[in-house]
Amino acid sequence: MRVFENLEEYAAVVGEEIGTSDWVEIDQEQVNLFADATGDHQWIHLDGERTQKELGMGTIAHGFLTLSLLPVLMGQISGVKSVTRGINYGSNKTRFVSMVPVGSKVRGRATLKAAEPKAGGMLFTSEVTVEIDGSEMPALVSENLTLLFQ
To answer: Could you give the CA distance from residue 34 to residue 32 in angstroms, rounded to a whole number?
Structure first.
């Protein structure tokens, strides 16, 4: 994990790749719980026999499940010691590039794109790519906004 002393030090690395997270495995139990939490019970996420029969593969994780991992992945990539609170401010653009088979490992790779003062804090824009272990194509690419205060 890359650790910065304060927001100014973090903002000074705009344009740089910040780092990568650890690999995180997505298992079927996590997919099932996400389906229950969101009401998205589409068979491609839950029915391994059917996905094998019809698609020739196992179940796949929800795209939004993969996206929902960004806070944990980003928390492994960097931190700012002086931060008292942070707010997920949204995203400018998110693209789901590849399916994530259940049982896959994913990790985040982040580049800091911009930093600007906002609402008494600093708004950071990061491009985050979620990579799939063993795949050349990423699961998703998202430009995320985080508002940090110190």
So the answer is: 5
Residues with Cβ within 8 Å of 2's Cβ and at least 6 positions away in sequence, in order, are 18, 19, 77, 78, 79
Residue 119, strand partner residues: none
**Dihedral (CA of 98, 73, 67, 37) sign:** positive
First CA to last CA across the chain, in angstroms?
20
Q: Which two tokens stand for residue 6?
A: 């304060």
Rounded Cα gap, residues 124 and 115, in angstroms: 5
pLDDT tens for 103-140 read 999 999 999 999 999 999 999 999 999 999 999 999 99
Q: Are 53 and 113 in contact (CB under 8 A)?
A: no
CA count, 13 A, side-chain hemisphere, 141: 5
Distance CA 66, CA 46 (A): 15
Dihedral (Cα; 53, 58, 60, 61), 10-degree rounding: 140
Q: What's the one-letter identity of residue 2?
A: R
Give the Cα separation of 115 and 145 in Å (integer): 10
pTM of structure: 0.94
